[in-house]
Specification:
The chain has 4 helices and 4 strands. The chain is of the alpha+beta class.
Length: 182
């Protein structure tokens, strides 16, 4: 420490000692038991000041941040649920195709014109109202939307769905068995 800084600190100590001298003299004039009580009371006042000036504001701020985080998580959960609901909601465009369109035509139209925009790798009829469909390397979420569209717009029910994950993230191969009530 430099000499100038030591001199400055010594000046501050002398100033503080001069201001607190009457209180120190009064404290030293007390009985030892009274000094103990005054020391305990001073420690309690200091603890109360520290609690109310430092700890309590920090605790309030932490609680407010926790509530804000919980609120943000709640909003994020509701937004995610709304997105899922919107993704799998029934398509708004187009009427339900009637029985005048064959099952294979309905599957073909839904594949090429709908959300999938990709024809099946293989389409095998199994009578007039049943078919087996194979898709390769199709996005999983798009396939689910297409299946929903097929059910809601074309009245085709998915009987069996065998879906395999592919090495590329998000892509799947799928084998579906579909049926349409006559």
């Amino acid at each position: 420490m430099s000499a100038a800084l030591r001199q400055k600190l010594a000046g501050y100590r002398a100033q503080i000692a001069g201001q607190t001298a009457p209180y120190r003299a009064r404290y030293e004039a007390l009985q030892p038991r009274e000094q103990t009580l005054v020391s305990i009371a001073a420690a309690m006042v200091i603890a109360a000041l520290l609690y109310s000036a430092i700890w309590q504001p920090i605790a309030r701020h932490r609680k407010a941040l926790a509530e804000e985080l919980q609120s943000a998580r709640s909003i994020a959960t509701r937004l995610a649920q709304a997105e899922v609901d919107q993704r799998f909601a029934a398509p708004q465009s187009g009427p339900i195709v009637g029985s005048d369109v064959s099952l294979l035509t309905a599957v073909d139209q839904a594949s090429k014109n709908g959300t999938l925009k990709k024809p099946p790798a293989r389409l095998q009829p199994d009578g007039d109202n049943q078919a087996r469909i194979w898709f390769e390397d199709v996005e999983f979420d798009v396939l689910l939307r297409w299946m929903n569209e097929l059910q809601t717009r074309y009245g085709v029910r998915i009987e069996v769905a065998d879906i395999e994950r592919q090495p590329t993230q998000g892509l799947v191969n799928a084998r579906l068995a579909v049926i349409r009530a006559p």
